[in-house]
Amino acid sequence: MLNETFLPSEDKKRIKKIREMDITMAGQLVDDSSVGIFVCDIDTYELLYINKLAEEWGGKGSDSTKNLTCYGYLLGRDTPCPNCHMHEMTEDEYREKEYETSDGRHYLIKGKLLNWHGQPAHIEYISDESETLAAQHAIRDLANRVPGGIGIYYFYPDERVEVSYLNDGFYTMLDETRDSWEKRRTMGAKEAFDGAHPEDREKLLLEIRSAVREQRVANMDIRILQKDNRYRWFNVQGRVAAESNERITLYLIFSDIDESKKMHAELNERLMQEREQLYKVLFNLIPMIISVNLTKNSYSMVNYENFTTKAAPESGSFDNLIEIGASTVPAEDREKFLLAFSRENLFKAYENGREKVELEHRQRGDDGVVRWVLTQVIFVKNEVTGDLCEITLAQNIDAEKQRQIQLRDALKTASEASRAKSEFLERMSHELRTPLNVIIGAINLAQDLQDVSEENRRYMKQANESAQYLLEIINDILDASYIQRHQFILQKDWISPKTIFCPTISMMEVEFRKKGIDFQYIEPEALDEDIQFYIDGIRCKQVLTNLLSNALKFTPPGGSIKILREHLYQEENIILERCVISDTGCGISKEFQKKMFQPFTQENAVHTGSVEGTGLGLQIVNQIVTAMNGTIDVESEPGRGTIFTVEVPLRYRNKPQNENEGLADENFLQGKRALVVEDHQLNAAIAKKLLEKKGMLVDTAIDGKEGLKLFENHEIGYYDAILMDIRMPNMNGLDAAKMIRSLDRPDAMRIPIIAVTANAYAEDKVRSLASGMNEHLTKPINPQILYQTLETWMC
Question: CB 435: neighbour CB atoms within 10 A?
Fold first, then answer.
């Protein structure tokens, strides 16, 4: 301490002044403090000092501190406080207490003993905690409203835990009172959570310590014992609020998740049951399931209780498993088994992008019986380790294989039966068409004779009608056979609409007049004259003929039949062609309309009379229209006639300028020379007569070999056309046509060769055209079609 005795008087004055300034500045700092400060005498309670804030709380000025006491000035009391602790305190001891005034304000008072200018005194620091406490109460009130428990815990280094605060929800959660917890506010760490399930208690403490160390939120589900001795599930989340060397302050939030846990437990139980049921079904369906790690060359049996072969152990080397498996496979299947399932080849299969490998093979069971087995390998890549794994599934397919064999045998039998039926139909067609050709040809020739009586002409007419009806039946049966064999193929070409409708309508008009039926045909405007359709002309005529023939059959004399053709729209190169055929006939019942397009169906009602037919016509019509991407609809009622509406989208083009339709010259065939190659003498004679009617010169040959010889032995251009039968001895028509086309002479490639045969299948026409023939006509021959065909190819 500075000795001022020997200092000059001026220095002493300067030091005194400095001290006075320090005291003044210190007083200003104390007055500016937010804490009230007062000093009082220990014995008399007299106020020795009071700062500005304490003066305001006491309501007195600083001059009035004389003869005032601490209890009177600050608290308005007449006597000292009954619990005053000034006389109990020791030096360097701090004591604090809370005090609430009559106006509801809260103060925190901290005090200690000191020496005040040589006399014992007590200094107290007073802070107004009203706002802080109000905020704390608000926070606690809010916390009490939050569902679940909220607690503030102090964790000390010596493993002590002090409970600073617990909200109302915490006590509700534990079904306890606040008093029961207040009695054990400070306890050991384990005791702090002694209500937790023993299995969860230590885990929770470890989780809290780990979260504090890693500076994260602690999170754990625990079970807490209730008063009814039942554990209830809670989720605990904890966050560090403050941390120091002395203690860690931790907020813990407890959320009741018992119902959620129950729901999850019930759901998991259901899932487990469903999974067990699924496994049972799966294990029954797939008796062997193996988990394999190809990279580690290891396997483990998942299920093989019901598999017929149990030669391999439950786990071990995969290579060894394949060797054991191969030993149970018959020798003839062993190589493909190893090729499919060796570890090396499985790696290659996976690298080549395959997701699974499967093989049907035979395998000997433990009972010695060889059975068919389906083995499947499904690849699985372990994304964590990078290992290539797979699941092997093996199941007995012996019964299924036997069924496949039975089905294959049945299919073979059915195919043989179908082939036999087709061969029969083809043979029947050929054998029937050959005499029919003679009958119809002879009738046509006889009708042209001059000295035939009217009675004989009537007989010939009846014979011709019967022959034509028989031909219609044959054609329908063959078409139905095509449909059944899925060999119904359209032969499309560019054709003028008039070449389809005009000949068919002209032919049918004659029949309508004979029966006394009024007929009307309404066609589109001049567009028909200028365009061509890309269609199968023969099939289109067949549709039109069948529908008109039906109308003719079921319309009585005096009735009417009408055809209405329309082009519904025209865009780009497509026209939607609509053809409506209506009649005033007997009509069709609603019940029969449901099955009228099925084969061999006829309405056996009284009103149909004794109309003949196979019941195949409408099925064939429907099949043709469907093949053309069209539709056919019917409107009818018994006794009120029938309306058939056919709509077909058709490609069209403008007709070429040089298009020549019909016979340009009635005498075009006059003087032309034809070679008829036919082994059947009567058919050859009929063909010869038909051609000679048009003034043609005709040579005949009895088979393909003789026909080829005749063509070779005559000069170039001697023959203008060849009519070629197909089925002939020595050399058939197909081979003869090929030989003629291969000859080294100019007319060999250009002479028209027309197939005239009883072979009526679509594939027969394909074979004829492939052999080099120009056209394929089926017997019996229609003279007009024959003449027109010759003219077309000879022009």
Answer: 17
Distance CA(639)–CA(660), nearest Å, equals 45
Structural domain count, the chain: 5
Centre a 10 Å sphere on the Cβ of residue 333 and count the other Cβ atoms it contains: 18
Predicted model pTM: 0.42
Burial class (CB in 10 A: 0-12, 13-18, 19+), 366: exposed
- In angstroms, rounded to a whole number, what is the distance separating the alpha carbons of residues 675 and 698? 6
> Are 304 and 223 contained in the same domain?
no
Per-residue pLDDT tens for 282-329? 656 677 788 899 999 999 888 777 676 777 788 899 999 899 889 989
Q: Is the dihedral of CA 537, 543, 546, 552 positive or negative?
A: negative
- Please tell me the distance from the alpha carbon of residue 547 to that of residue 503, in angstroms, as a whole number: 15
Phi and psi angles of residue 438, each rounded to the nearest 5 degrees, phi first: -65, -45
Same domain, 255 and 318: no
19, 37 contact by CB (below 8 A): no
Backbone angles phi, psi at 595, to 5 degrees: -125, 15
pLDDT tens track for 736-752? 999 999 999 999 999 99
Task: Look at residue 753 in the predicted model and tell me its pLDDT.
Answer: 97
What Cα–Cα distance (Å) separates residue 337 from each residue in 326, 362, 394, 580, 591?
7, 10, 13, 65, 59
Residue 714 has pLDDT above 90, yes or no: yes
d(CA 108, CA 81): 16
**pLDDT at residue number 366:** 83
- Three-state DSSP state, 381: strand
Asked whether 634 and 642 are in contact (CB, 8 A), the reply is: yes
Q: Are 703 and 731 in contact (CB under 8 A)?
A: yes
Q: What is the CATH number of the domain that holds 731?
A: 3.40.50.2300
149 and 243, same domain (yes or no): yes
Q: Identify the CATH number of the domain in which residue 349 sits.
A: 3.30.450.20
Which domain range does residue 533 map to?
497-654
Q: What are phi and psi of 86, to 5 degrees?
A: -60, -40
Give a yes or no: residue 363 inside a domain. Answer: yes
pLDDT in tens, 243-285: 777 788 888 888 888 888 888 888 888 878 777 776 666 656 6
According to DSSP, residue 46 is labeled B
192-248: pLDDT as tens digits: 777 888 899 889 888 888 888 888 889 999 898 888 888 889 898 888 877 777 788
Q: What is the mean pLDDT of the chain?
A: 81
- Whether residue 726 sits in one domain with residue 646: no
d(CA 637, CA 588): 5
449: which DSSP letter?
-
**What pLDDT is attached to residue 606?**
39
User: Is residue 640 scored above 60 in pLDDT?
Assistant: yes
pLDDT greater than 50 at residue 712: yes
Looking up residue 623, the CATH number of its domain turns out to be 3.30.565.10
One domain, residues 247 and 363: no
Closest CA to 235 of 217, 247, 248: 217
Q: Which residues pair with 489 in a beta bridge?
A: none
Q: Which of 128, 155, 175 is the last residue of a domain?
A: 128
**DSSP 8-state symbol, 405:** H
Strands 531-535 vs 218-225: parallel, antiparallel or unpaired: unpaired
* pLDDT computed for residue 134 by the predictor: 66
Percent of the chain with pLDDT over 90: 26
Contacts of 517 (CB under 8 A, 6+ apart): 552, 555, 557, 558, 559, 560, 561
Q: Quick check: 236 and 218 in contact, CB under 8 A?
A: yes
pLDDT greater than 80 at residue 732: yes
Claim to verify: residue 48 and residue 161 sit in the same structural domain: no
Count of beta carbons in the 10 Å neighbourhood of residue 576:
15
**Helix, strand, coil percent content, the chain, rounded in steps of 5:** 45, 25, 30
Q: How far is Cα 273 from Cα 365, in angstroms, rounded to an integer? A: 32
**Residue 139 pLDDT more than 70?**
no
